[in-house]
Design a protein that fits this description.
The protein is α+β, with helices and mostly antiparallel strands. It has a single domain, classed as Nuclear Transport Factor 2, Chain: A (Roll), CATH 3.10.450. It has five helices and five strands. A five-stranded antiparallel beta sheet has the order 1-2-3-4-5. Helix 1 (7-21) crosses helix 3 (41-68), helix 2 (24-32) crosses helix 3 and helix 2 (24-32) crosses helix 4. It is globular and about 45 Å long. The mean pLDDT is 84.
């Protein structure tokens, strides 16, 4: 990933990566789960836009740190499965956000789950040390709906609020 000098350039770079390499609609539908069907088509589109903004604002700093650490992730293996492919990698702890943590720090294991759409592989999930970004997002959104009386539309309001909060940092 290219080095960027301003926060706006960093966000634009992560947004471009997200658009180019991630299955945003598929990931968004998975994260929303059963609540996808409860939203109107316009609410679904709004959710996908909010989801993209939320992911970009939330993960941009860490993604740039990971990309900078020791040249980025080192691929350790890959295999196909019925849904696409899984690429295994490690991020060395010797630089980036792990600098100075000592020799006992082990490489961070990252799996990139890829799905095929329109003849292209796209990232459909990132699993860091066994924790799935998609499953974690789904769990968080389920909690939002439960805390708001089962109203799926509450997800939109909460995401708007979180994006506004993240944007002001």
């Amino acid at each position: 990933m290219t080095r960027y000098s301003t926060p706006q350039q960093k966000l634009a770079g992560v947004r471009e990566l997200f658009h180019q390499d991630f299955d945003v609609p598929g990931l968004g539908r998975f994260v929303l789960g059963r609540y996808w069907r409860l939203l109107t088509p316009s609410e679904q589109q709004e959710f996908l836009g909010l989801f993209e903004n939320f992911v970009v604002l939330t993960y941009s700093e860490k993604l740039l740190e990971y990309a900078a650490s020791a040249g980025g992730p080192r691929v350790t293996g890959s295999h196909t499965d019925p849904d696409g492919a899984i690429v295994s990698s490690e991020i060395a702890p010797g630089s980036g956000p792990w600098a100075g943590r000592g020799p006992a720090v082990q490489p961070i294991k990252v799996e990139w789950r890829l799905s095929v759409g329109d003849g292209m592989y796209k990232i459909s999930d990132v699993v860091i040390e066994g924790l799935s970004m998609a499953a974690n997002g789904r769990s968080q959104l389920n909690g939002v709906v439960e805390r708001n009386g089962g109203r799926a539309q509450a997800i939109l309001a909460v995401m708007r609020q979180q994006i506004a909060s993240a944007s002001s940092r």
